[in-house]
Predict the 3D structure of the following.
Amino acid sequence: MFWMKKKSVHVYEMLAGLFVMTLIVSNIASIKMVQVGPLIFDAGTILFPLAYIVGDIVTEVYGFRKMRSLLYVGMTTLLLTSVTFWLVGLLPAETSWNNQAAYDSILGVVWRIVAASITALFIGELLNSYVLARMKIHTKGKQLWRRLVGSSAVGGLVDTTVFSLIAFAGTMPAATLMQLIITVFCIKIATEIVVSPLTIRLITVIKRHEKIDTFEHPTLRLVD
């Protein structure tokens, strides 16, 4: 008789995959600028807040250093995706394929946008994780809702401002740029608040499943 060992659910790996997927898809979607009523924002804003939610879960459960490592993976993946799209765009098309212009308009790489995405992601997500971990020590693991929203407000504001300035400064009027920053930031924070009950529930379930609740003093050094 053969006995099959019950496979455990690898939660961290699932969160890591979701984090990387969110970065790639939202980065591609950001190519399109949309307007809903008076609000103007890049379409990637629809999905990108999920990256901060996953980052909150990883930091709260596994700790700052684990999230920092995942952030490095995400940045590398974004860069690899952009380089791949750029190289594919340079390759000569087969004679019957007439969609080069469409490819260039959607997947063509604008290195300024790539630089903005990677820089903003690194600074914003690192600050989000750092603040969350610091607040966890300060509150002795309590006041989770306040910690989640507060850290995301810091990281989201910095992320949105850095990305918008690097990506769009000089390409649109200053008033439009400021309106873009405010709109995107408000969408991110509103999303964080709306889904916070689910985020807190997931954190509780994952901590129980993984039998882990990490407390660590974070550092803004790139490596320890």
Q: What stands out?
A: Residues 11-27+44-92+99-210 form one domain.
